[in-house]
Every structure is written in C-alpha cells, then in structure tokens.
Amino acid sequence: MRTYTVALAGNPNTGKSTLFNALTGLKQHTGNWSGKTVSLASGHYEYKDARFQFIDLPGTYSLFSNSADEEVARDYIIFEKPDVTLLVLDATALERSLNLALQVLEMTDRVIVCLNLMDEAKKKGIQVNARKLADQLGVPVIPISARNNEGLDVLSEQLLLMSTGQTPTKPYRMRYNEQLEAQISGLESQLRDIVGDEYPARWLAIRFLDGDRKLIATLRDKLKAADKGGISLGTAKALGSSNSGHSF
Q1: Are 239 and 190 in contact (CB under 8 A)?
Q2: Cα distance between residue 118 and residue 134, in whole Å
Q3: pLDDT above 80: residue 53
Q4: Facing residues of 37 across strands?
Q5: Mean of the pLDDT values across residues 166-188?
C-alpha cells in the first residue's frame, strides 16, 4: 500500500482540526516541529488501496515570515513538497480565507480546496458555487461539513485522484503591474538556473523582491544540504539588486 503525504492548511477557526480529527480519528500523534516551539500533529487513514499521512499545519492567515507558525507552514509546503496540499476555507467568510488560498496557489500545483462549514453557510443563507470557484481557482473545490462528516467520501476520492496524478490543475496566479512583472520575470529566470524545477521559481522571485531574508537563508541552507552548490548571500544580494533595487 502506497503512502501519500497531505499537508492540511488553513486559517484559524475554519474547522481544519475538526477535519483532521474526522479523517484520522485516533491514528494520530503530536509533538513539536524541529527547532520550533510550534506544535506538530500528524495522523493517517486508509482509503481504497492508499494510505494518507496528514500533517496538520499551524493555522495562519498568510505564509510570509511574520511568525513561527507562518514559517513552519510555508517551509513545509515549499521544501517538503507534500503530494497534496489540502486547503480548508470557511464557506461563511470566503473573503477572509481567499487571501491564504491565493498564496498557496502561487506555491504548488497540487492543491485541493475544502469549503468547510457548509452547514453554517446554509443556515446564514450563504450560497457558494463550488464549481464556478473551482473554475476560477483552477483546482478542485469540495464542499464539506467536517463536524457532520458530510462530503468526506468525495474528498477522499479526490485526494486519491490528485495523489496519483489523475487530476490536472491550473492554479490561478496573481498578475501584477508591468514593471513588477518584468522584475519578477528577470529574477525568476536567474533563480530557475539555480534551483531548476526543485522549487517554484516565480514564487521565490516574488518573496525575494519582498526582501524575505528568512526565506533566502532557508533556501541557501536547503541547497547546501542537497549538495547543489548552494546560493550564497552574496548571490542573493546580486540577484536582488540587479533586478529590483532591493538589497538583501
């Protein structure tokens, strides 16, 4: 039986942990992320001929470097490269949840969106067109109510299809003004020469242009650990200054 890794991401209070518990039951354990005081919860369950290992990422509103929780969630998606990132959104407050969704879609193609709390949305008279949202986001969107175990069979099937490469996706990517897009493109090209297809070069370029020093340091360490020549801080400075005017 093959095991697939699923990263569970979402804002706080979207029912992410409820979904995690509903799927994994007692087959889970907790601890701390290496070198962090942030708690780590992982668990698994089996569906058909597959085993899904869930990593419950810290609930966050963004994936920048503003807190340890954000760093843990971001670094896991980028550097550990789970087979699927399962993004839990609050169906009663999509405008709040979509900020994180757009960031995740910049980072990976392998995303499934869960519209959780559909029962609460119905009570409030909120209707969400999951099919239209899926068309706009470019990834599967599954309506569920985790606490009522509604939609979990459909979700499990989609997890299997995504994990086995049977679900094509075309994630929505933000487009910026012409000047910024030119800077992103130039830096993206140079980063791709360094990282190849190992990491998402466009997303890295955006974060580099934003001056994300912690990400630069983490990327350098990852590349050195992989014996890929690394990316020196001097190289990072040169890339930044030659393309954006930013100094890292």
Answers
A1: yes
A2: 16
A3: yes
A4: none
A5: 94
